[in-house]
TrEMBL record:
Keywords, ordered alphabetically: Phosphoprotein
Modified residues (4-aspartylphosphate): 192
Domain Response regulatory: 142-255
InterPro entries tied to this protein: Bact_response_regulator, CheY-like_superfamily, PhyR_sigma2, PhyR_sigma4, Sig_resp-reg_PhyR, Sig_transdc_resp-reg_receiver
Record-given protein name: Response regulator receiver domain-containing protein
SUPFAM superfamilies linked: CheY-like
A Pfam family this chain is assigned to: Response_reg
Source organism of the structure: Edaphosphingomonas laterariae
Domain of life of the organism encoding this protein: Bacteria
């Protein structure tokens, strides 16, 4: 099997991580392309002493670490999102965010995470603890849940409330979601892809975003379909079945990049 064939199954999930880390599909996918370009340019430098997924993320982390303390690449347009990110980076270090996302969202062990970010397992534990402490201090938001499966909706509602956020409502169809968003503007949306009556969470979110800006986390059992890098796709994505820690990390990261949550 060629190296390209080994890496292909892992690319969607690297895109998920990169988008969550940068708060942008455009920027995250650009970092993934840069990592792939580095592998193509010097395949002999690809880490072959570890499995393909770990090696791929290792190359990505080297690219990320080389970009001026995590400022965006020079060829990426600057905007408010980057200013927001820098403001929050003053309180939670990029390394802490990486450690949390790698363990909670990507499922790497403490040892593998230490390898990826060039530190020790003990330091990874400290970094994750620092990130979780910052989450506890994070500005709370009003959250709209768009989910038609009652058990999953209740689980999400519990997680959201345990994090200190308020739930504005639970919608099970596209029309309900739009109506609830209009009635009480949320600060964050958690949206399933497939809803009751065969409506789409993606369409519901498009309708909501047409009226006002709000960070969105999509929830799907088929993440690969929304992580192709070939069209406009979600920045934040949770895979079903999800872990509590994954939802917690995704919510924290989405709010991290949202201007509405930056304290005055």
């Amino acid at each position: 099997m060629s190296l390209g064939q080994e890496l292909a199954p892992h690319l969607p999930f690297l895109r998920r991580y990169a988008r969550a880390l940068t708060g942008s599909q455009q920027h995250g996918d650009a970092y993934v392309r840069a990592a792939l370009e580095a592998i193509v340019a010097a395949p002999q430098d690809f880490p072959r002493d570890v499995d393909a997924r770990l090696g791929l993320y290792r190359v990505f982390e080297r690219i990320w670490a080389s970009t001026n303390d995590n400022d965006e690449r020079a060829d990426m347009p600057e905007g408010d999102r980057e200013g927001i990110a820098r403001a929050r980076l003053a309180r939670i270090t990029p390394m802490s965010r990486q450690a949390l996302l790698l363990t909670a969202m990507e499922g790497f062990t403490t040892e593998d995470t230490a390898y990826l970010i060039d530190t020790t397992p003990e330091e990874v534990g400290t970094l994750v603890a620092d990130a979780l402490a910052e989450i506890e201090r994070q500005t709370h938001a009003d959250v709209l849940i768009i989910e038609d499966e009652p058990i999953i909706a209740m689980d999400l509602e519990t997680i959201v409330r345990d994090l200190g956020h308020d739930v504005t409502g639970v919608a099970v169809t596209r029309d309900e979601a739009v109506a609830q968003a209009r009635a009480q503007r949320p600060g964050l949306v958690l949206a399933d892809i497939q809803l009751a009556d065969d409506s789409s969470g993606i369409d519901a979110v498009k309708d909501i975003l047409a009226e006002f800006s709000v960070p969105v986390i999509f929830i799907t059992a088929f993440p690969e379909r929304l992580l192709t890098g070939e069209r406009p796709e979600p920045t934040f994505l949770i895979t079903k079945p999800f872990q509590r820690a994954t939802v917690k990390a995704a919510i924290a990261q989405a709010l991290f990049f949202d201007s509405a949550t930056v304290p005055a």
